[in-house]
Amino acid sequence: MKRVLITYSNARKVAPYLEALKAVGIDPVAVSAEEEAVIAMFDGLVLSGGPDIAPEIYGQQREERTEATVPDRDALELALTRSAIERDVPVLAICRGMQLLNIAHTRGTLAQHIEGHLHRTKDPSEPIHAVTAGADTLLAQILGRGELQVNSRHHQAVQQIGCGLIASAHSPDGVIEGLERPDRRFVVGVQWHPEDQIRRFPVQLRLFEAFRNAL
């Protein structure tokens, strides 16, 4: 069974990711910001959701609506992500994880606040808006080329895309909802939370299956 590293900062919120990974036959090892990890010991990397990323990392001053950050987690994930990219270790990046993936690449930046995408509902699988994967992208191969209804819990978003990455999905208002790196085995980021939708919308499980198949 393939072992993958998954990062987190809130133990109560990591369970859905672990469930989704186990559902496709992956052995996940969860690591918090207080721990250390070496990517060479794992077959893949999952970057999970969580708090805002310190804007100083991507060359911006902190804005009023930027929330509290976790510098230790930022540093750990940046090191792990860059090591994974260098070694061509598969990476699946979710929500904050996609934003981290972007700024781990040269010139990648974030918009520190956007309106209309932060929705915390009683049912975390609840669809909020549509996304559409771009033609000829890996994400379209995995999830299909039509509109997909997704959940949404973020107030920050990709601004300038990091070198080597491409935008693979957008919401109707133009927000980048997917990133991927075509020159690697599997580097895919999504801005929504597929781990919360796999039971209600089985199409979302395909993302984890594709990740497993790349390991």
**How helix-rich are the residues, as a percent range?**
10-25%
* Number of separate domains: 1
General form: globular
**How many β-strand stretches?**
11
Tell me the major beta sheet.
9 strands, mixed
H-E order: EHEEHEHEEHEEEEEH
* Residues in β-strands, percent: 15-25%
Instruction: Identify the CATH homologous superfamily.
Output: Class I glutamine amidotransferase (GATase) domain
CATH topology: Rossmann fold
Gyration radius over CA: 16 Å
User: Order of strands across the biggest sheet?
Assistant: 2-1-3-4-11-10-9-6-7
In CATH, the architecture is: 3-Layer(aba) Sandwich
Residue-averaged pLDDT, rounded? 93
Keywords:
215 residues, alpha/beta, Rossmann fold, 5 helices, globular
Describe the protein's architecture and organization.
With 215 residues, the chain is of the alpha/beta class. It has one domain (3-214): 3-Layer(aba) Sandwich (Rossmann fold). Helix content is 23%, strand content 22%. The protein has 5 helices and 11 strands. It has helices spanning 15-23, 71-87, 96-103, 138-143, 205-214; strands spanning 3-8, 27-32, 44-47, 91-94, 110-111, 129-133, 147-150, 157-158, 166-170, 176-180, 187-190. The strands form 2 sheets. It has a 9-stranded mixed beta sheet, with helices on both faces. Strands 5-8 form a two-stranded antiparallel ribbon. It is globular and about 45 Å long. The relative contact order is 0.18.
